Amino acid sequence: MQKPTIPKGTRDFPPEEMAKRNYIFDTIKDVYRLYGFRQIETPAMENLSTLMGKYGEEGDKLLFKILNSGDFLSSMSEEDLKEGNAARTATRISEKGLRYDLTVPFARYVVMHRNEITFPFKRYQIQPVWRADRPQKGRYREFFQCDADIVGSDSLLNEVELVQIMDEVFTRLSIRVSVRLNNRKILSGIAEIIGEADKITDITVAIDKLDKIGLEKVNEELAAKGIAREAIEKLQPIILLSGTTAEKLERLRTVLASSETGTKGVEEMEYIFNKAGALTLKNEVTLDLTLARGLNYYTGAIIEVKALDAEMGSITGGGRYDNLTGIFGLPGVSGVGISFGADRIYDVLSQLNLFPESFAHSTDLLFVNFGEREADYLLPIVTQLRQAGICCELYPEAAKMKKQLTYADNNRIPYVAMVGENEMKEGVITLKNMRTGEQKSVALQALKEEMHQLQIS
Fold it and tell me: FRET pair for 387, CA 20 to 30 Å: which of 64, 273, 370, 380?
């Protein structure tokens, strides 16, 4: 018989790993809720008409398409099949696809439910997405996104709040990070004043690589894209701006004085940094002019978070967009959002050994099963402990003691309770610490309190 497998780029998550993943998800959820965000979910599959054309030509190729139910070839003629046009065939035999991200389904949701939504609308969504990408280390075909967006408000206080949320999440996870900000309007202003306004994408794609390939190679790439030498020279002092964020913004204000768009971008950044600076944030927040993620999408602030103590790309990103719902015929709905990269955060926590030990197990206490009479005696006790919030279980069979203790060991259950004939007579239990091997007798009435103390310590 053939051994079962799973599709490439997907993963099984065993219990221990799920506990760690839920630690991340629960931390993010708790902070989102703290800031007034409300959870929504959208279907795993959307109509292809909703998804196609929203991610560019490359994105369309990465959509997982779902075959129509029943005889999906009935809409195809023999000539169609012979023609072998894969793209056209796909649209004929498939009307649905798995979601590629959470943003386009959210835009669709806002348009469909606009009469029920109170704006500004603060939503969060933590669900899996699928991309028919080539699987490689750190890149999967199925992965989770943890998005939060505020739509229907132009206020820059929303950006300030998102900076606070990122700071709070990473403080709770004990990851030291750098929150980096830039602004699409500043980048547009730079392209404008060096006389290459139509080459903004080429310019930003190149300077985005400054950390990786160095200034010389960046300049070579700019020249290869047809950007004039004079423009490249004008760009140098801007790319290499140094000093504090306030000093950089002051310099940019002067450099971009002739660009209305650029000046507006500087003003927006000054507002965000001034407001964030008045708060007691635990992590650094800095201006990074090489930051150019999602340029075709973002219209204002651009946000990226890097871990300071681990080799890892961006672990959170986001920004301001002016026309989320325009693709579905509802123009003028501005929004700003962020997305935590749960898989990368997991890798950082693992690298730095930052997962709390308590997440290594789900059960706090295992009751050994000595037989039918003892099991009957223990069932109400187990029920009472569960009602008190103590995770416990009774081994289902009266197996050999060694087997039951091995079960506790393998499942990292820290405490085992033994109740035999003597214990039942005396109203006590023998409590064994599986880590140290120590045993002690605990009165039945005191067990609840004892377990609560052990959970805390």
Answer: 370
Task: Residue 39: give its domain's CATH number.
Answer: 3.30.930.10
Asked if the structure places residue 3 within a domain, the reply is no
Range of the domain at 66: 45-98
Residues 307 and 337 in one domain: yes
Domain boundary pick from 351, 381, 412 = 351
* Cα distance between residue 289 and residue 98, in whole Å: 35
Angle at 165 between CA 249 and CA 117, to 5 degrees: 105
Number of helices (H), then strands (E), in the chain: 18, 16
Strand runs labelled E in 216-358: 284-287, 301-307, 316-321, 335-340
In this prediction the pTM is 0.88
Domain end point (choices 351, 376, 398): 351
Number of domains present in the structure of the chain: 3
Residue 152's closest CA among 336, 318, 334? 334
pLDDT digits (tens, 9 = 90+) for 427-438: 999 999 999 999
Handedness of CA 81, 84, 86, 88 (dihedral sign): negative
Is the CA virtual torsion 170, 171, 173, 178 positive or negative? Answer: positive
The pLDDT assigned to 371 comes to 97
Q: Are 124 and 148 in contact (CB under 8 A)?
A: yes
Mean pLDDT value of segment 275-292: 93
Instruction: Average the pLDDT over each of 85-94, 130-139, 196-205, 215-224 and give the range with the smallest value.
Output: 85-94
Tens of pLDDT, residues 174-212 = 999 999 999 999 999 999 999 988 888 888 888 878 878
Q: Output the CA–CA distances (angstroms, integers) from residue 359 to 18, 168, 354, 414, in the order listed.
A: 9, 21, 11, 12
Whether residues 365 and 333 share a domain: the answer is: no
Q: Domain check: are 327 and 401 in the same one?
A: no
Average pLDDT over residues 339-362: 89
**Bridge partner residues of 392 (DSSP):** 365
Same domain for 262 and 184, yes or no, is: yes
Q: How far apart, in whole angstroms, are the C-alpha atoms of residue 272 and residue 159?
A: 7
